[in-house]
User: Which sequence fits this backbone?
């Protein structure tokens, strides 16, 4: 255990200035672990040192090696992660913190069945290891950490040996396999097997040893023959024999036993590998070998043209060699060999003069070559490959008892509640995430611990939970359970609920009483009651209703671009209004009711300012005595924005106005004016917005209402007293 050995190994690929970080981490960790011992009696620091040495073999960057040396100091030496960040930088601190989080996962709340982690739980844990690691280097450190732990497992009691070996074989070895890290994978498998079934392990090891002595002369002769033939054609190659490993032979024995064969029938315990300089040389070497010995066509695989899911590339062929003995030969480049040994880690190795983040897109592209999760292997290995998009689409969270639940990304506490039990979802009144109260539409993150608060009293789910704009539930499972609850309610109750929702939405948007019969008919509902039932059971949501109410002319195209914003207080001239029987008269939007596309409108002929456009439910229109000055109007092609006054009621809290204005800006809606009226506990906020149509207004109001501290958000119906002539 010497800093010099580690620095020499790292110095073979890292520049001198990068070694300073490693040396500093070595000194810091050695002092932090001073006096600590492992259960074997060895100094504790031997473990992080060995972990760093493994990563140096992988040629990982200086930050990874430093983090490996420091990976146990926060938990075992009570050194705050902030101290690590202060001394070694944010990148190293994040790696150390990531490994610490992964350490807490092992066996947490997992169900055991005869010593085997249940299939689904093992899969969730494997995915969790990747999903929680924002940087895959965290996983490399964890695998190197586990590898050294397995090499020193003999110092532990037999019961713990078995438990750790089982976990390693079920989780960490398949993880290394899916990451393409063959050198790590086979060691973890063989070491685990040694403790799980020592009798079988030693029996197979003895058989292989005996077979090796028998085959050694044959393999050496075949290697020499291949070298000679390749050299004749000017192909530089490194050719050598390689034995299969104990655990893979064990699996092969079981496979052969099912076919009525025994150990002596296994001919591919040893193989020959040829390493060449280029891909063309691979295919040339293949042709030479096939001319030398007869190939078995069914045993040929071209993994160069068709790489495996984890990036593995090679040519595999089996030939009838000397004495018609089957012989497996693998042909690949040196670069392919490096990737076969170290997998994903090979893509993270340090390259002098190239910054880490410059290769990030390349690394992600490589990861995305992994095949579909469910498509290939059995559950004892990773049932699926590390397809990046799959991890992006899922989060893994804990119940208070430590059980892992997988949910789609964007899932909320309500989704979690319905995943646990339907009644838990229905009776949900609140949620805590990591011990803190959160809104029910809070987005869950990997590793969150979720506690659902419920009421013992009978409680109905809310129709608002089905409103996609409010974001209460994202999973189809939760949506289905909520709709099923409403569908089971009585017809009269659902009609009443739907009618109330309809009237509430009309009022919220500040619209006139719509022709509900016409709307129901246009949506293919036989009666108004059927339409109300659809609303009352969640078949039609409030958000969908708002869009329907705005679609008076469904075929009208709303342009994507928006004209320059109108200044506050100015009338917006619109070419989007058509006046029946009148040519190109000047029109403007009335300031008293601020109509927008989707509103029922009517024109009012002024004495000197053309035609002012009003909503039909405008107080000034309703009270107008000179009915002959009213003229039919309708919305034509929409090109402009329209001022709309909105009233928001919110609890007094710091930042509420900022949150509202930020949301509006994110929705790319302009604000013409803002006024506030503050009271003891609440604030009324009046905002004039520049809106394109009713659908845009409805969605914006819904999102504002979903902000923390907002009580209501509605279109204001305050009007001015007169038209102006």
Assistant:
């Amino acid at each position: 255990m010497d800093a010099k050995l580690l620095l020499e190994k790292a110095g073979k690929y890292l520049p001198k200035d990068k070694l300073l970080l490693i040396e500093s981490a070595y000194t810091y960790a050695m002092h932090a672990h001073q006096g600590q011992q492992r259960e074997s009696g060895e100094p504790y620091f031997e473990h992080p040192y060995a972990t760093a040495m493994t990563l140096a073999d992988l040629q990982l960057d200086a930050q990874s090696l430093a983090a490996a040396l420091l990976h146990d100091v926060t938990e075992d030496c009570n050194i705050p992660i902030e101290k690590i960040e202060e001394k070694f930088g944010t990148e190293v601190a994040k790696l150390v913190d990531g490994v610490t989080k992964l350490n807490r996962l092992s066996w947490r709340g997992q169900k055991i069945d005869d010593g085997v982690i249940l299939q689904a739980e093992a899969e969730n844990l494997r995915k969790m290891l990747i999903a929680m690691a924002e940087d895959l280097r965290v996983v490399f450190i964890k695998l190197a950490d586990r590898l050294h732990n397995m090499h020193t497992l003999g110092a532990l009691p037999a019961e713990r040996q078995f438990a750790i070996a089982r976990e390693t074989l079920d989780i960490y070895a398949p993880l290394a396999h899916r990451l393409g890290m063959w050198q790590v994978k086979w060691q973890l498998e063989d070491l685990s097997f040694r403790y799980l079934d020592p009798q079988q392990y030693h029996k197979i090891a003895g058989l292989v040893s005996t077979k090796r002595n028998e085959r050694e002369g044959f393999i050496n002769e075949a290697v020499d023959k291949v070298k000679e033939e390749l050299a004749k054609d000017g192909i530089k190659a490194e050719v050598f024999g390689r034995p299969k490993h104990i655990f893979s032979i064990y699996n092969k024995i079981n496979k052969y036993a099912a076919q009525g064969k025994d150990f002596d029938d296994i001919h591919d315990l040893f193989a020959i590998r040829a390493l060449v300089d280029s891909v063309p040389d691979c295919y040339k070497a293949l042709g030479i070998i096939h001319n030398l010995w007869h190939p078995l066509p069914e045993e040929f695989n071209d993994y160069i043209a068709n790489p495996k899911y984890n990036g593995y590339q090679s040519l595999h062929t089996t030939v009838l060699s000397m004495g018609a003995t089957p012989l497996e030969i693998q042909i690949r480049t040196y670069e392919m060999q490096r990737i076969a040994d170290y997998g994903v880690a090979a893509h993270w190795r340090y390259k002098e003069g190239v910054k880490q983040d410059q290769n990030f897109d390349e690394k992600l592209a490589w990861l995305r070559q992994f095949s579909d999760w469910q498509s290939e292997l059995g559950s004892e290995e990773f049932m699926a490959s590390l397809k990046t998009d799959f991890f992006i689409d899922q989060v893994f969270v804990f119940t208070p008892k430590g059980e892992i639940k997988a949910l789609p990304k964007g899932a909320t506490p309500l989704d979690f509640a319905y995943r646990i039990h339907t009644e838990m979802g229905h009776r949900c009144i609140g949620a805590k995430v990591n011990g803190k109260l959160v809104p029910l539409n809070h987005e869950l993150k990997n590793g969150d611990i979720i506690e659902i608060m419920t009421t013992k009293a009978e409680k109905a789910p809310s129709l608002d939970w089905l409103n996609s704009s409010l974001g209460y539930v994202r999973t189809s499972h939760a949506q289905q359970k909520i709709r099923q609850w409403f569908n089971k309610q009585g017809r009269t109750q659902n009609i009443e609920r739907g009618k109330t929702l309809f009237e509430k939405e009309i009022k919220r948007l500040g619209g006139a009483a719509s022709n509900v019969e016409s709307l129901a008919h246009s949506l293919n509902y036989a009666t108004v009651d059927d339409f109300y039932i659809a609303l009352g059971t969640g078949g039609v949501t409030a958000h969908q209703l708002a869009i329907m109410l705005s679609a008076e002319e469904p075929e009208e195209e709303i342009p994507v671009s928006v004209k320059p914003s109108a200044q506050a207080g100015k009338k917006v001239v619109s070419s989007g209004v058509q006046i029946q029987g009148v040519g190109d008269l000047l029109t403007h939007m009335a300031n008293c009711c601020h109509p927008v596309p989707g509103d029922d409108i009517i024109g009012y002929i002024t004495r000197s300012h053309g035609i002012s456009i009003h909503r039909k439910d405008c107080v000034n229109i309703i009270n107008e005595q000179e009915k002959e000055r009213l003229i039919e109007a309708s919305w034509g092609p929409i090109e402009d924005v329209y001022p709309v006054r909105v009233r928001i009621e919110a609890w007094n809290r710091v930042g509420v106005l900022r949150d509202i204005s930020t949301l509006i800006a994110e929705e790319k809606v302009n604000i013409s004016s803002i006024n506030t009226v503050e009271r003891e506990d609440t604030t009324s906020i009046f905002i004039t917005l520049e809106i394109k149509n009713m659908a845009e207004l409805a969605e914006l109001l819904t999102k504002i209402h979903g902000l923390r501290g907002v009580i209501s958000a509605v279109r204001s119906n305050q009007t001015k007293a007169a038209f102006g002539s």
In short: Residues 489-550 form one domain. The longest strand covers residues 642-651. The chain has a mean pLDDT of 77. The first helix runs from residue 3 to 11.
